[in-house]
Design goal:
By secondary structure, this protein is of the alpha+beta class. It contains 2 helices and 7 strands; from the N terminus they run E-E-H-E-E-H-E-E-E. The protein binds FE2/S2 (inorganic) cluster.
């Protein structure tokens, strides 16, 4: 198994392991966390968005679908901040993100 990184989710302080290069939301679900969303990882709702507090340089690059979903659902200002969609976010190191509503399922 690939090594795992730790993603800390504020303000709850929940920590979840994510295997190297794997998707944040998918990994969190596999660890039994409920993650706010409305489209079940289809890259449409942007409800899974996170603000990256630490480690943005240790994530996958933003793809076109993710960029369009953020623009359509959250407006141009979303791209001025380190905001990403958890359902599209590849994790390549430890991160700290801000996301309200994440809880143990
Ligand atoms: S779960 Fe809907 S865009 Fe990520």
């Amino acid at each position: 198994m690939a090594s795992a990184h730790t993603v800390t989710i504020e303000p709850s302080g929940i920590e979840t392991p994510v295997p190297h290069g794997e998707n944040l939301m998918q990994s969190a679900r596999a660890e039994g966390l409920w993650w706010p969303n409305q489209c079940d990882m289809q890259c449409r709702c942007a409800g899974c968005f996170v603000l990256i507090l630490e480690g943005a340089e240790r994530t996958s690059q933003m793809g076109r679908a993710e960029r369009e979903a953020l623009l359509n659902q959250r407006g141009r200002n979303a791209l001025d901040q380190p905001v990403r969609l958890a359902c599209q976010l590849g994790v390549y190191g430890d991160l700290t993100v801000r996301k309200t509503g994440v809880r143990r399922a």
